[in-house]
Structure formats: C-alpha cells, structure tokens
C-alpha cells in the first residue's frame, strides 16, 4: 500500500537528515548515548508492517471513529512491543508510532471516498478526522493518572507541568503541522534541495513548539533556551553553507547540555508524510 511506503520513507528521511541538533543522524548520535543511526533503521523496519495494518484498519473500517481508534491502539501496542524488542528496549519511535497509527488509520478511512494525491484541503480533512477520533483520549488516559505506579515520561510530564504531549497534538488535529510546518513546506518547495528544506522545517518547529522531550530533559529553562536558539537560526535566513554550520554548532551545544528536540523530529516525520501525499517532495 502506498501509504505504508510514504510513512516508512518519512521516518527514513527524518533520521537521515544531517546535521540535526541534539538528534540521531548520519553524522552522530546527538544527545543520545543509548541509540544510533543503525538502531533507528532496525526500529523503522520493525514498525513498517504495522504501518500497513494501520492504513488497512482505516480503509476497511465502517463504524464510528472512536471504535477505529480502539482498533488502532490495540495494534499500536503490538507495534511498540516489537519496536522495543528490535531496539533492546530503547524508545526510538514510541511517539512517532502513536502518531502514525492515528494518521494512517485516518488516511485509510478517508481514502474510502477520496484518492491521491492530496490537496491541502484533503490533508486538513484527515487531520480533522484525527481530532475527532482522539477527542476522548486526554480524559481517558489522564483521569486516573495519580493512581498509577508505572508512569511514562509523558505522564510524568503531565503531572509536573500539565503538558499534554503527543496526545494533545492529536486531539487538536496536529496544529503544528497545519499551522506551521506544512504551510512552510508548501511555500518553499523547490527553492532548495530537499535536505536543506526539511532541516529548515525542523528548526522552524524547534523555534515554536512545546517540545515534551526538551521539557523532560531540560525543564522549562532548557526548552526555552533551545527554542530561542532555534528562532535565531530560523530568522537569520542563512545561506545553505552558513545554515549547516550553525546546525553543527547548535548540535554541539545540545550534546553538552544533554538536550534533544525529539518532539520536533517526530512532527517533522509527520510533515514529510503529508508532503509525500501532496507531492511536495
């Protein structure tokens, strides 16, 4: 299925982009001592069969969206288990797996009555379906959170700061995609090579979003520092050489501070997916 190929390629594109500040790429492991480029390849390969299942579940679904989400979540739990087995229990793509489950499910559902390639309106419609599908999610997952003994990083962060993380993005229909990244990619496609365009998209995200990975590792101060640095780079409108040099310097800073904008990286992979659907890249 074409959707499976697009989702898998999106994750390959994201990890291959280099240099990325604080993130695993072709050049180094960023601020991650427990994972590397090849582990990401193993992780992506473990998830690819499930991407097909997510899209199939959506395409064959004939009930309400809440029941589709239940099917996707059960399959996503299986995918996460296989991913962790492939990565020796290292969390490489937990957030991305969740997001691709709901996005592929929603896309498959939408394609029952529509076709590729997508227009920007088709993308907006799919994101709206995701929002409808996950409206119950925050209440469902966080209503009894204080009674749980084994909390995820996202759950701990919610208790500490109220940040909703990827669940919040989903319930709102991924506003970082619809309002920020995708308009940027649509406006700048064809102006420079794909790698530079996507790296600029990453820095745009870093400069704007509430990144739960940064908040987990560096608290509000660490997140704000990274956000301000990203904003400076983005607004400087550097040529390709200087832009790459600034990313290399930014990477070293984040390695020293043990900070990684993993939330922005996940969102970038989702933006790449829609870029394939819209034939932007």
Mean pLDDT: 93
C-alpha termini separation: 19 Å
- Going by helix content, strand content and strand pairing, the class is mainly alpha
| Sheet with most strands | none
Order of helices and strands: HHHHHHHHHHHHH
**Cα shape:** globular
EC number: 2.4.2.52
Family: Belongs to the CitG/MdcB family.
Protein name: Probable 2-(5''-triphosphoribosyl)-3'-dephosphocoenzyme-A synthase
Pfam families: CitG
Structural account:
By secondary structure, the chain is an all-alpha fold. The protein has 13 helices and no strands. The protein has one domain (about 1-140, about 150-275). It has helices at about 1-15, 35-60, 65-85, 95-110, 120-135, 135-140, 155-160, 165-170, 175-190, 195-210, 210-235, 240-255, 260-275. The protein is globular. The chain starts with a helix and ends with a helix.
What can be said about this structure in brief?
The protein has one domain (2-138, 150-277). The protein is built from 13 helices and no strands.
Q: Helices, strands, pairings?
A:
Elements: H1 2-16, H2 37-59, H3 65-86, H4 94-110, H5 120-133, H6 137-142, H7 153-161, H8 165-171, H9 175-188, H10 194-208, H11 212-236, H12 240-257, H13 262-277
List keywords for this structure.
ATP-binding, mainly alpha, 281 residues, globular, 72% helix, 13 helices
């Amino acid at each position: 299925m074409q959707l499976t190929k697009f989702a898998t390629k999106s994750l390959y594109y994201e990890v291959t982009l280099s240099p990325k500040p604080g993130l695993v790429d072709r050049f180094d492991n960023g601020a991650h001592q427990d994972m590397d480029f090849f582990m990401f390849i193993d992780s992506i390969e473990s998830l690819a069969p499930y991407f097909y299942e997510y899209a199939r579940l959506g395409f064959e679904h004939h009930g309400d969206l809440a029941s589709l989400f239940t099917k996707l979540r059960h399959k996503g739990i299986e995918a996460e288990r296989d991913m962790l087995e492939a990565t020796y229990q290292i969390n490489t793509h937990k957030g991305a797996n969740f997001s691709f489950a709901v996005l592929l499910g929603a896309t498959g559902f939408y394609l029952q009555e529509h076709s590729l390639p997508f227009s920007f309106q088709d993308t907006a419609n799919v994101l709206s379906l995701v929002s409808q599908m996950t409206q119950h999610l925050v209440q469902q997952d966080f209503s009894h959170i204080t009674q749980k003994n084994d909390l995820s990083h996202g759950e701990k962060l919610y208790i500490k700061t109220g940040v909703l993380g990827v669940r919040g993005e989903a319930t709102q229909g991924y506003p970082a995609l619809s309002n920020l990244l995708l308009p940027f990619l649509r406006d700048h496609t064809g102006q420079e090579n794909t790698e530079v365009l996507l790296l600029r998209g990453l820095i745009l995200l870093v400069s704007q979003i509430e990144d739960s990975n940064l908040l987990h590792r560096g608290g509000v101060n660490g997140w704000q520092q990274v956000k301000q640095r990203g904003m400076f780079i983005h607004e400087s409108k550097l040529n390709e050489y200087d832009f790459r040099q600034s990313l290399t310097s930014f990477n070293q800073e984040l390695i020293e501070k043990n900070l990684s904008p993993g939330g922005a990286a996940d969102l970038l992979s989702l933006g790449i997916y829609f870029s394939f659907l819209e034939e932007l890249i």
